[in-house]
Fold this protein.
Amino acid sequence: MSAGRAVPLLGLAWACAPGPSPDSAQPASPRLDLALPPHFPALPGGAPTVAEAELGRHLFHDFRLSVNEGRSCGICHEGKKAYTDGFVRAVGTTGQSHSRNTLSLINIAWRGPLTWRDPSVLELDAQLEVPLFGEHPVEMGMDPAGLVDRLSGISLYPPLFAAAYPDASDPLSMAHIASALVAYERLIISGDSPYDRWLLGEEGALSAQAEAGRQLFFSPALGCSGCHGGLFLDLPTDADGQPTAEQPDYLNTGLYNIDGQGGYPPEETGLFALTGQPEDMGRFRVPSLRGVARSGPWGHDGSIGDLGDLLDAYARGGRLLVGGQYPGDGAQSPLKDPRIAGFALSAADKAALLAFLDALTDEEALSRPFLQTPFCSDPPDTADGACTPVAP
Ligand code: HEC
Ligand code: HEC
């Protein structure tokens, strides 16, 4: 590819510019020169080279990144499920259950603090060590040296690393594994939903019902946008809709009240599990709502199976759980955010809000060919759950 030539990757308009290493022995891979959605800020970290993105795509979808080849990043973060897995709570490669629901990776390049509840995880390359190497729970069950060794022994990888990092004396390293995965993750860009087209002024981009839902979402009476505001619908905003902070809040929305004092189930107590501060019980990061109609089940623990039920819980000012393991009335929780105060919601309003949430999905971004697995078809085609690799 020559400098300046547009290549149709990711369904966006890409143009290639010369790569970073014109003097190396290996020909430099061209950089992806992204034409981002016009209303998006610049891509953090800048555009990767084509070779690094291609390496990242392989790594993200390769089951051999887990100890018994049962999980890839991509099987837990699947495009058509808005880069989640459809499980209530994620299940790691050795069968251990996570205490939280899988988060979407849509527009992850612009996310501030990562994960549902740990404000100290700020960078994607630090975050990916959690699923790869974490033990509580085991998600992929690897260790750094074992991972480098394993990839070195798979004939596919040394050339892919050499192409991605032509200047490095040791291309196949943990640092480069992380760099390529991050490069791939940052390409999960979604900015062409009906709501985006509405933001860009396209007439008729939202159906009449979704437009009614948009107005409810941004109304003072419902107040959704006070927490789910800004471009990615995860920032606090003032009465004029302007973000009042650069990072999402960590809040208790009254999903549980197991003891009359706002208690959450002991297996997942939110920020409280990290700080031990009583007021942090049940506080979770406000999630982005882009692609939300496809990312169910919802909530930090996947306990919301239906978006209509969640709207009912917001309307009554907290979730009422009768029976089951953790009965209680979240509306009576002393720890819930005061903005979860309840509101009237007619059946038509509810349908309108659901139509608006649906309009936050960019269909093309969920099935972009360039982001799909380069390996076997889905579901895996071997008895042990591993994919059969095919040549890139
Ligand atoms: C077993 C399923 C599973 C696997 C495998 C997995 N993840 Fe995740 N991922 C999750 C869960 C669950 C969360 C939410 C974690 C939390 O709240 O701490 C998450 C969260 C994330 C986040 C943070 C999203 C946000 O909005 O803050 C990123 C980024 C991420 N994963 C990337 C990866 C990458 C890269 C890989 C492969 C190296 C990977 N994941 C493998 C289940 C998985
Ligand atoms: C006070 C801040 C606040 C307000 C107001 C608020 N939310 Fe939320 N929302 C959150 C938080 C925090 C979570 C995560 C809660 C959890 O899982 O424990 C969340 C979760 C969600 C989810 C689930 C997302 C997912 O990926 O699992 C949806 C959908 C949602 N909110 C929609 C709405 C709508 C619609 C409104 C208005 C009726 C609204 N929210 C009002 C803070 C808020």
About this structure: Residues 194-361 form a domain with the Cytochrome Bc1 Complex; Chain D, domain 2 fold (CATH 1.10.760.10). The chain is about 25% helix and 5% strand. The beta strands are 6-7, 14-17, 31-34, 250-251, 284-285, 320-321, 328-329.
